[in-house]
Amino acid sequence: MKDIYENPLITRYADRHMAEVFSDDYKFKLWRKLWIALAESEKELGLAITDKQISEMKKFAEDINYEFAEKEEKIVRHDVMAHVHAFGEQAKTAKPIIHLGATSCYVTDNAELIQIYDALGIIRTKMLTVMDKLRALALKYKNLPMLGYTHLQPAQLTTLGKRATLWLYDLYLDHQDLVHLMSHYKLRGVKGTTGTQASFLSLFDGDGNKVRELEKKVVKKLGFERVFAVSGQTYTRKFDYQVTSLLSQIAQSAYKFANDMRIMQSFKEVEEPFEKTQIGSSAMAYKRNPMRSERICALARFVESMPMNEAVTASTQWFERTLDDSANKRLTIPQAFLALDGVLNIYINVTDNLVVYPGVIARRINDELPFMATEEILMECVKAGGDRQELHEAIRRHSMESAKAVKERGERNDLIERIKSDDKFAAVWDNIDNILKPENFIGRASQQVDDFIADYIDPLFKSEKYTQYTPDIKV
After folding, report:
1. Which of 247, 283, 417, 445 could be 162's S-S partner, Cβ–Cβ 3.0 to 4.6 Å?
2. Catalytic pick from 55, 202, 281, 421?
């Protein structure tokens, strides 16, 4: 439909897999799975629940009668109770025991936590795909010298491969935090209305051990081991801050890469993919704008803003809970994941199809390298018996004149020609071309790439079982 607003995170950026995780269907099926796990566990611990009731619940676990639920919600004005009634309408014998002892947050909070966990799994796979492609780029271009920068001013040389390791290391650190979060993941568990488990204690006639066992059983049936140690009605909303902070970290890493790409493309050293029929500008037909990298930055900026929202939400929860988090969470958590999903889709595309122009890179090095080589030239002349102070003054003078010609008259850098015509530097004339080889100025960049890949990235991929992800959306 074109006459109402559609969320571009769904229609343009995130792919279907992530969108499905935060769909109503995914959520409501988790609710039913949670109700079944609760009923099974309560039966196993002695409550009067029959195999027939559980069997009937399982029969309709994924066959949700949405039309009934929607009509019911208009009457009761409560989404969880509407779905309790809808489930009971289908599983009629189980109707009396569905949601037994639970509060709404039993299904809403636990389901949201499972959705977040599943979404983190998608992010993890896509991050590894990007990292794999950056690894390949680093190794492929580890020996390709290019200008390094500090303050966005030309500094000592680096290599394109070494620069790729900077992008890769950022993601490596993010991946460590992601793995830690997922490996210590917790559900809300079975906590009751204000977190005291009072309703469940009543169901089990005051037997606290059975209540503790109930929570363990439910969580295990859902595929998890841990629960939040204590809670009010909801799990602490500080966890949502932790999640969005992690997503923000990953977005920051992608933003850094994309910003570097935009600058390198303006230098014409490197380009992101550009399709044959793609239009860069509606007015300037010759332009090849870094549209994908710009889109990464735009979406990453949105993700980076999410932790502040969750910080406010976490800090304004009243006592055991307040409902002002609910409508907010419907927006922040799904959209943070969807936006980052879009970022990673584009990141995969750009790193998989990067275009490098070694000729342009070499030309830009040659414009700056004469200045960088002056110290080496000076030292070689001193070794041959020259006066260091006299040579230093001559180089300073020649450098100033050459820089003036470049900056004021737009001429090329002729510093080396000036040195070759000055008898003070005769000792290096025969060797000056060897001195000026770019590979002499990259330090250990190439070895650093090999060491980093061997010591950090390869062990990571040996420990991670994953399949490269191909986004199902055109970027």
Report:
1. 445
2. 281
Q: Are 181 and 161 in contact (CB under 8 A)?
A: no
Tokens of 286: 């010759």
Assess contact for 469 and 14: CB atoms under 8 A: no
Q: Buried b vs exposed e over 201-226: b needs ≥16 C-beta within 10 Å?
A: bebbeeeeebbeebbebbbebbebee
Distance CA 305, CA 310 (A): 10
Pairing of strands 270-271, 355-356: antiparallel
**Amino acid identity, position 139:** L
Pairing of strands 145-150, 153-159: antiparallel
Q: What mean pLDDT do residues 102-117 have?
A: 97
Q: What Cα–Cα distance (Å) separates residue 25 from each residue in 29, 38, 107, 223, 303? A: 6, 20, 14, 20, 25
pTM: 0.92
Active-site residue identified among 151, 183, 184, 282: 151
**Residue among 110, 115, 117, 55 nearest 221 (CA):** 110
Active site residue 281: yes
CA distance 306 to 397: 54
Question: 107 near 38, Cβ under 8 Å?
Answer: no
Q: What are 269-321's pLDDT values in tens digits?
A: 999 987 655 545 444 444 578 999 999 999 999 999 999 999 999 999 999 99
Residue 51, token pair as written in the block: 């195999």
Q: In this structure, what token pair is assigned to residue 54?
A: 């559980």
Do residues 103 and 27 lie in contact, with contact meaning Cβ atoms separated by under 8 Å? no
Report the chain's mean pLDDT, rounded to a whole number.
93
Phi, psi at 156, each rounded to 5°: -65, 160
User: Per-residue pLDDT tens for 330-387?
Assistant: 999 999 999 999 999 999 999 999 999 999 999 999 888 888 877 788 888 888 888 8
Which of the four pLDDT bands, split at 50, 70 and 90, describes residue 219?
very high
